[in-house]
Design brief:
Blueprint: H1 2-19, E1 22-29, E2 40-43, E3 47-48, H2 54-78, E4 82-84, E5 95-116, E6 133-153, E7 159-170, H3 183-202, E8 205-212, H4 220-230, H5 234-248, H6 251-263, H7 267-281, H8 284-309
Parallel strand pairs: 2-4, 2-5, 3-5
Antiparallel strand pairs: 1-8, 5-6, 6-7
Helix pairs in contact: 2-3, 4-5, 5-6, 6-7, 7-8
């Protein structure tokens, strides 16, 4: 009986998820760090700490090549700044990006592990005998990586922002030490995330988000309005939701009308509608949606501020 109830509950949950209409929208985010209207960035050659050993400096070469090339290419692709690469350092810039590999500790360890023999039966057959335990010898490589970077004002030499990224990882088992992976290969995924992070920090970017509409079961008018919204006919959907609300007073219809406005980027109108709905109903769904709309308005305000400084 309990199993039947659980299956029934799952069925209800999947039915709800399948019926809910979501609107997928792209929204802009401001750069995470305000560079005060800078129009050019110089990417300084990446340095290495004096504490790195000669071997670690050799390992660092491929890392530096990857980061310098992809940071320059990534920022240049945005066309938001004039990018002065590491080969053109004498050109002055509004902001300098200075980076250093502070730590690249590579250590290899030999391991011995005693495990149960899966072929052990406990029975001796002729001259053959399976031991109950076997000893496995293998190697693992550990890499600790720390990367520090800062944005420096090109005119005052003031550090605008300083950040650091630390990662540690361990390789899979290798039967021979020569089969251990290169440190660069072990942290290549982290390096890609560094490039993406720096881009988000200084360039406005776009994210995709989903807005969920509320459903009124067994109401054909609401289903029709939902279909209009789902297919991108947002003006028509908005008008239909308002028509339904005027006729029925459905909370869901007014809520969805405000969400449609949010999907169109009409944040002030969406906020006013959702705030009115919350004050009248004190419904937590309206409160959460109102907070989301106000967050989007704050993002847009910061984005406009950043763009105005560049004029």
């Amino acid at each position: 009986m309990k199993k039947f109830k659980f299956i029934l509950l799952l069925g209800c949950m999947f039915a709800f998820l399948s019926c809910a209409t979501t609107l997928s929208v792209n929204v802009q985010r401001p750069a995470e760090i305000d560079l005060q209207g800078a129009k050019s960035i110089a990417i300084e050659p990446i340095s290495t700490s004096n504490y790195l050993t000669r071997t670690e400096i050799v390992y660092a070469r491929d890392i530096i090549t990857y980061l310098e090339y992809n940071m320059e290419r990534g920022l240049a692709a945005s066309r938001y700044y004039t990018i002065i690469g590491t080969n053109d350092r004498r050109t002055p810039a509004d902001v300098y990006l200075e980076c250093e590999i502070v730590n690249l500790n590579v250590s290899d360890a030999k391991k011995t592990e005693r495990t149960k023999n899966p072929n052990y039966t406990g029975v001796q057959s002729g001259n053959s005998y399976q031991t109950e335990y076997i000893t496995e010898i293998y190697y693992r490589r550990n890499v600790e990586f720390k990367f520090v970077y800062q944005y420096v004002d090109g005119y005052t030499n003031r550090v605008i922002e300083r950040r650091e990224i630390s990662k540690s990882t361990q390789s899979e088992k290798a039967l021979e030490i020569k089969d251990l992976p290169d440190p660069y290969d072990m942290i290549s995924g982290y390096l890609s995330s560094i490039v993406s992070q720096i881009s988000r920090e200084v360039v406005p970017y776009t994210v995709n988000k989903s807005l969920t509409l509320l459903e009124v079961k067994n109401n054909e008018d609401m289903k029709y309005a939902d279909k209009l919204a789902e297919r991108g006919y947002l003006n028509e959907a908005y008008n239909k939701y308002i028509e339904i609300f005027n006729a029925t007073g459905f909370f869901e219809a007014y809520y969805n009308a405000a969400i449609v406005l949010e999907a169109q980027g009409k944040y002030s109108e969406a906020r006013d509608m959702m705030k009115s709905l919350y004050l009248q109903t004190l419904d937590s769904r309206a409160d959460r949606a109102l907070a989301d709309i106000e967050n989007e308005m704050q993002y847009q305000y910061l984005l406009e501020q950043q763009q105005n400084k560049r004029k």
